[in-house]
Model the fold of this input.
Amino acid sequence: MDARMTVGLLGGGVIGGGWAARFLLNGHDVRMYDPDPQASRKVAEVLANAKTAMQALLTADLPAEGTLELVSTPEEAATGVVFVQESAPERVDLKRALLATADRVAPPEVVFASSTSGLLPTLLQSDMRHPERLCVGHPFNPVYLLPLVEVVGGERTAAATLDSAVEVYRSLGMEPLRLRKEIDGFVADRLLEALWREALWLVEDGVATVSEIDDAIRFGAGLRWSFMGTFLTYRIAGGEAGMRHFMAQFGPSLQWPWSRLTDVPELDDELLETIVTQSDEQVGGASARELERLRDGCLVAVLQGLRGQGFGAGRTVSAYEDRLRGAGS
Ligand SMILES: NC(=O)c1ccc[n+]([C@@H]2O[C@H](COP(=O)([O-])OP(=O)(O)OC[C@H]3O[C@@H](n4cnc5c(N)ncnc54)[C@H](O)[C@@H]3O)[C@@H](O)[C@H]2O)c1
Done:
């Protein structure tokens, strides 16, 4: 998989553009289909940001950049490629039809992956002639910097498909997490949605503003999450007795009413307006691309710091650099 590949991308928005950057900067050629006439400009802007970030992050040279070709049908994007990554809007009917269309022209050995944030692969593969080749490869934004990609199969997915997808993602410097079973929302978005629901309630109840809620994460637990996650952090919080003590000390509080997770706040106009207004105040007029560059710079700093520790995502970056050096020598 380290050799130059040609891959097909279906959809070139936030996530498809990120995939384009990830593949191109790893020296692979990309054939992309997106009906948006602005897709070419948007992908070029994402690629420019990605290049800046990857060059700042890595101590190893990236291979010569691949070429991007925008094509006008999904069939063209799935022709002459070894791997197809679908990143179209999160609508099951649209994705099913798109995958079935591309599936009709690609030889059976071509692996298909969907970037869906939470739709079941069993549903997505249901109209395909070769359902065994479809899995979910759920990435995180920005795809070119964050290593995690959740890999999930459906009822009819072949084990070899999952193996191939894992191999492709690993060759791109990513950290594939192979899920044991399919479930709506997979693992990461289940966790994120729990936090998101709670955050919406805190705004709805007037407890905190959007920027205060962000502060509550970024000055505290968010820093720990970026390298140890929840379980390892809590084990350490249990002191010398570890997890057993932590569970004994904080287990009972789970029975107290600390959470409104079982309810969903109604997303009426008033709540929407509050969130949007507070969010606008929070960014003070910065554009989307400016915010992306700020985010990328911070992520590069975190990843470089973690690389120095040889831990978590820092270890993934080191392994990727070793791979790049090996491929270049
Ligand atoms: N945004 C995120 O943070 C994020 C993270 C992980 C996964 N995802 C998933 O990635 C997928 C894409 O999300 P996004 O955030 O990039 O959305 P987006 O709206 O930014 O991009 C979707 C793109 O698909 C294009 N499109 C529309 N119809 C199409 C079709 N028939 N064929 C091909 N392309 C088509 C649109 O023109 C647009 O450019 C979704 O399944 C989403 O759940 C999003």
